[in-house]
TrEMBL record:
Homohexamer. It comes from Arthrobacter bambusae. Residues 19-28 have a biased composition (Low complexity). Residues 1-28 are annotated as: Disordered. A divalent metal cation binds at residues 91-92, 130, 258, 262. It comes from the Bacteria. GO terms for cellular component: cytoplasm. This is GTP cyclohydrolase 1 type 2 homolog. NCBIfam families: YbgI_SA1388. The lineage of its organism: Bacteria, Bacillati, Actinomycetota, Actinomycetes, Micrococcales.
Length: 303
């Protein structure tokens, strides 16, 4: 995958933020970047079980470079450090569950040490980045060419456009085989490829999507009357039960890589943050990591 750069013009002076002292003219503090992030992906949209927000970093530190990645893996952290980023924004949390130690004897502890020792902050934008307008599933819906897009599971306390997943319509009917090929071509290449359940020649128009693991949303998918559902990490039992309950074979299923389904959001997120910071008069260089954090290296298939 190619790196994506978003350069933001220097058009202002560093006014002091409530989250941190002012940086040099045009250069924001981490606190000011956090305010821009909150404008785009409010923490209030995160699911109750989720852990989002600042993980490592001083709000008063200045930020000239920001890198986006799907996962806070050691490889992604090293890429950010090597580039000189003062902030790494990842979709997935580093510390989703409670820990009692961040000693460098564990991978997560080493990650925390590398970040702090290098002066690189870490920020998590997870389910708030899923639910927000322009979030992960919005980007997928746009990439697949869907019209009349609405949330698959609307947010309980948010705008009508906010929520988990999206459902919309293709401009014209497509066969399942052709639509699956479109999905395969659009997503980053990974070892697992794309798995499909349904009649290859079956026709589809209404499409439900959910970036990341979405096999808990089958009730919402059925209620949306989608012909097909695209998500990641489909487990055996939910997928099997969905096929057993299918009407005329629908919804068809397309199972993709968790990493690949969420990577598409990164360039859009980088551009969105760059635009907000530029509007606020800040000068920041933003890049998407080239690190592929899909955990699989190869796959064996019949034939």
């Amino acid at each position: 995958m190619e790196a994506v750069n978003t350069a933001v013009a220097d058009t202002g002076s560093g006014e002091e933020s409530e989250n941190g002292a002012a940086g040099t003219p045009g250069t924001p503090t981490l606190g000011q970047v956090l305010l821009a992030v909150e404008e785009l992906w409010p923490e209030s949209l995160a699911e109750e079980w989720d852990e989002v927000g600042l993980v490592v970093g001083r709000p008063t530190a200045t930020v000239t470079k920001v890198m986006f990645a799907v996962d806070p893996t050691l490889a992604a952290i090293e890429e950010a450090i090597e580039w000189g980023a003062e902030l790494l924004v990842t979709h997935h949390p580093l510390l989703l569950k409670g820990v009692t130690s961040v000693a460098a004897t564990s991978a997560k502890g080493l990650a925390v040490h590398r970040l702090i020792e290098s002066g690189t902050g870490l920020l998590t934008v997870h389910t708030n980045g899923d639910s927000a307008v322009g979030g992960v599933s919005d980007v997928l819906a746009d990439a697949f060419g869907l019209d009349n897009v609405v949330p698959l599971a609307p947010a309980a306390h948010g705008l009508p456009e906010e929520g988990i997943g999206r459902v919309g319509d293709l401009p014209e009917l497509m066969t399942l085989g052709d639509f699956a090929a479109r999905v395969f071509e659009i997503l980053p290449s990974v070892a697992g490829g794309v798995r499909v359940a349904g009649d290859k020649d079956g026709l589809v128009r209404r499409v439900a999507v959910c970036g990341g693991a979405g096999d808990s949303l089958f009730d919402a998918v059925r209620a949306s009357q989608a012909d097909i559902y695209v998500t990641a990490d489909m487990r055996h039992h939910p997928a099997s039960e969905a096929r057993e309950a299918a009407v005329d074979g629908r919804p068809y299923l397309v199972d993709v890589s968790h990493f690949a389904s969420e990577w598409l959001w990164l360039p859009a997120a980088a551009e969105a943050l760059g635009n907000v910071l530029a509007d606020q008069g800040h000068d920041v260089e933003i890049r998407v990591a080239t690190t592929n954090s899909d955990p699989w290296d190869f796959i064996l298939t019949p034939g």
